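Practice problem: Immunoglobulin superfamily containing leucine-rich repeat 2
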Amino acid sequence: MAKRLLKILALWTFVIGIVQCCPELCHCQNKFARQFADCAYKDLLVVPVGLPSNVTTVSLSANKINFLKSESFINITQVTSLWLAHNEIITIETDTLAPLNQLRNLDISYNKIVNFPWEDLANLTALQLLKMNNNEMVNLPMDAFSTLKDLRSLRINNNKFTTIVQGTFSALSSLSHLKIFDNPFACSCSLEWLRDWIAATNVSVPELTSIVCDTPENLNGTMVTNVPKLDCEAPAVTVTSQPNIDESDLYEGVMVILNCVTKGSPMPQVSWEVTVGNQNYMFPLPSTGEMNDKPINDKTTSDRFLVFRNGSLIIRRLSEKENGNYSCTAVNDLGKAESGVKVVLTVSPETSSSTPGFSPPAESITLSLLTIFISSGIIHLSLGDMESTWIS
Ligand SMILES: *[C@@H]1O[C@H](CO)[C@@H](O)[C@H](O)[C@H]1NC(C)=O
Ligand SMILES: *[C@@H]1O[C@H](CO)[C@@H](O)[C@H](O)[C@H]1NC(C)=O
Ligand SMILES: *[C@@H]1O[C@H](CO)[C@@H](O)[C@H](O)[C@H]1NC(C)=O
Ligand SMILES: *[C@@H]1O[C@H](CO)[C@@H](O)[C@H](O)[C@H]1NC(C)=O
Ligand SMILES: *[C@@H]1O[C@H](CO)[C@@H](O)[C@H](O)[C@H]1NC(C)=O
Ligand SMILES: *[C@@H]1O[C@H](CO)[C@@H](O)[C@H](O)[C@H]1NC(C)=O
Ligand SMILES: *[C@@H]1O[C@H](CO)[C@@H](O)[C@H](O)[C@H]1NC(C)=O
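Answer key — structure tokens:
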């Protein structure tokens, strides 16, 4: 009788156990006041629902999960260790990981992640171990790890990172192990800091012989720590004009030549930007190919402007429609520089009175027509975030 009751009781708790405590294919266990959920090697396609709310360690390793949906971990915020290695994850939705602010160990290595929701990491301030190696990640934002003060070990090796912005590791005050090897590094001026940082840091950075340049071609295969001192110079731009726009009046029909002269190493990418009326034109100059007499712009603009590879922009016949800003920009690894002129047609007294609808303020009639605006200034930028961090 007692035996039978015990049996029923056992069955009852077993059923409860399944229903309330553990997803079907997982094995849940209470040990040393910690709650484990082991769901590894189960061919799971998604994160199972119904994990115990007080679970602290969840293993989902070696399944076939290819997508992490944003609410997947919403009920298990006590988790301190989350193992997701060897799945087929391509995408992790934003906010999937952010609720796990107790997380100390996160392993998402050996997946196919291209875009990681870096903003989620900012919430994971308790992280000590972060394994992201063997994925397909390309971009590493400069502030990716900026809140991870307790992080001791970071693995981002075997990804597709071409660069690491200076300062990326500087907030990691507890870091002792860093794996970055087997990434296709572009050994340009913006990566030069890494050579010096590896040499000076106390962080252990293993497998130096696999931390090598992929580009430029002449450095392909060279260890980052052996990259020679590069010739790096921030860009500079000067715009000159014929006739000299400071000193001459510019009358209707005149041809104006604007020359953009740039400096910098590596050779900067140069472009003209023209803002006339409410139109805006961009003319990027090709950085390769022969200098020649052919304009680079096509028929849609060439009746008004001619832009040449050598940096000259010609306003063919000045009219009121060509009044506007002509700005030349040079960008390389070290930053961006810009310089421009404002072109304003000089209005002669007769034309002004005979042009209906155009009544400039009295003094601008006699005033010299061209005002220069120069917003030079070289700004050092973090690579990969060039447009957004440039301040003029
Ligand atoms: C977690 O919850 C289960 C069932 O509610 C309970 O048996 C267990 O003691 C709890 N574990 C911890 C570590 O609090
Ligand atoms: C979270 O808990 C709610 C309420 O118990 C439940 O409806 C939901 O399915 C759970 N979500 C997950 C992903 O486990
Ligand atoms: C980030 O963590 C804080 C608590 O530290 C929490 O209030 C917030 O909801 C978390 N963010 C998300 C998106 O879960
Ligand atoms: C490395 O450690 C030594 C000794 O502990 C210390 O003097 C030095 O400043 C450290 N270097 C860096 C880059 O943290
Ligand atoms: C660099 O060299 C390796 C082999 O030495 C080659 O597979 C790779 O394609 C090269 N990369 C570039 C950008 O040339
Ligand atoms: C650039 O090339 C154009 C076309 O050949 C020429 O008219 C112009 O004078 C050149 N500019 C300079 C600064 O040499
Ligand atoms: C030209 O540049 C000046 C100074 O930057 C600016 O105030 C003005 O609005 C610009 N004009 C046009 C047409 O873009």
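Discussion: The longest strand covers residues 233-242. Students who identified this feature from the tokens alone can consider the problem solved.
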